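Give me the 3D structure for Extracellular serine/threonine protein kinase FAM20C-like.
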Amino acid sequence: MKKILFRKFRVLILMVFLIACTMHIMIDLLPKLEKRAAGPGTAGNNGCSCSNRPSEEPQSWGKQRARTGAESGWPNKHTLRILQDFSNEPSSNLSSHSLEKNTGPADKTEAFKRLEHYSQHGNNDNKQFIQDMNTNKIEPVMGYSKLNALFEHSLYKIQVPAEEDTLFNVNTDIRFNPKAAENPEWKNEGNDEEEYVPTGEPSADSYPNWLKFHIGINRYELYSRHNPVIDSLLKDLVSQKITSVAMKSGGTQLKLIMTFQNYGQALFKPMKQTREQETPPDFFYFSDFERHNAEIAAFHLDRILDFRRVPPVAGRLVNMTKEIKDVTRDKKLWRTFFISPANNICFYGECSYYCSTEHALCGKPDQIEGSLAAFLPDLALAKRKTWRNPWRRSYHKRKKAEWEVDPDYCEEVKQTPPYDIGTRLLDVMDMTIFDFLMGNMDRHHYETFEKFGNETFIIHLDNGRGFGKHSHDEMSILVPLSQCCRVKRSTHLRLQLLAKEEYKLSELVEESLLRDKLMPILIKPHLEAMDRRLRVVLKVLSDCIERDGYNNVVENDLDSATANTITSTR
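Predicted structure for Extracellular serine/threonine protein kinase FAM20C-like (570 residues):
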């Protein structure tokens, strides 16, 4: 009897298991069958920018995924350009739903093949790099432009060494071929009528602006002065159709990877604070909010300081429903969307800090501001090296870093490679000044392009924790400068120039920010704080020069002819 009952029980368990499997398969197939039965013409719009009305229940994940590639805008695996990296940590460059895996030899080969698809090799005797197409002036926003006057100054006409030392050796004879991406619906940026050369292939001008930006990177700068491609790329960041969205893994706060119709990509940081809000006084620097307007302002400040080490950043008003929820295939992100009691669309994603219902990001009703930072070239094509900042903070509530307790710490740094030779230590001083002007305490690492070795610039990534307090100047940010007492002559001269009334830093930054769609980016107190902090920087350098002598503090990075020209125009 017991054996019969035991057998019946086993048969029952088996039947339950089979029923569960059958139901699971049916649930997966049902949305596709519904979609096929409904036909392509029934996916109409209801006149609302939301995917579902506030009174309706959200659609299931299965229905969201049932869209075809053409409807959702998600490129298939053959047409999707390799995901690019905008990370401070090499191990955190993948999104939580990324199509990119760790780049091994096979992936690197595939990446190069895809880059070659964008071109056909031309005559190497006529090398002319894209960043040198012309040097158009920036158009004044209204009337007289102080910004144009600044860029006409001799300090902003100093030539960098030979630009053949580029990240990619590509010339303008190469033709960009949209068919290489196997996408018949390729949309050219700009005019609908694409200019073709006699061979029937698009000219070099048809390259997407993100690709022109990548090709323009060289040993000394991310982009050349007044490069028209940068302004065009900023427009693309605002206007290009978003075809897919995924959360970026790593980091403490929510960031999204957005892919555009032209296969460019950008890092999206949503608005978390209003312009008027300051960082609460009881917040530690490592738990501060990352501000979208700080990323935008940092790009413009970096450009005015003539560093050109921040990738292009633009502000954009994003429709959370149509441009995030409806196009994402990141299930973890999709599940965090909800409708607030005020009938606003909200989401919170997944991250270490501030990713909960209590800290949700809500639209009005589904529009949200954010910054979009253009991606750098993929790591498979252009490896980057991550360096620990010698003046990194402890990121601890009670412990202090060595540099905070040892006044002679810089002497040790000066004897440590790569700071013992070359310009690396001076580049760190540039970065220190840049961070102090913004009030950014969160500079734990920095990156360089591996191809150029140690003789290259520092990339100023991740500036979202700047511009948090306009009423306070954090003097500990300036410790590297006060300890080392070293600065480039070109940097020192530009700082002195920007302290003059006719080239006032705050007014230049304010004018530059008027070009962004989300203006005003910074409120007046933050602009005035930059002028105040600039005077502090110059005072620290003045004290160093008085104590150690000009030649021991100011490193002459200008040739004699350039130095004489600048001296005569001052």
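The CA atoms of residues 142 and 511 lie 9 Å apart. Let me know if you want a second pass.
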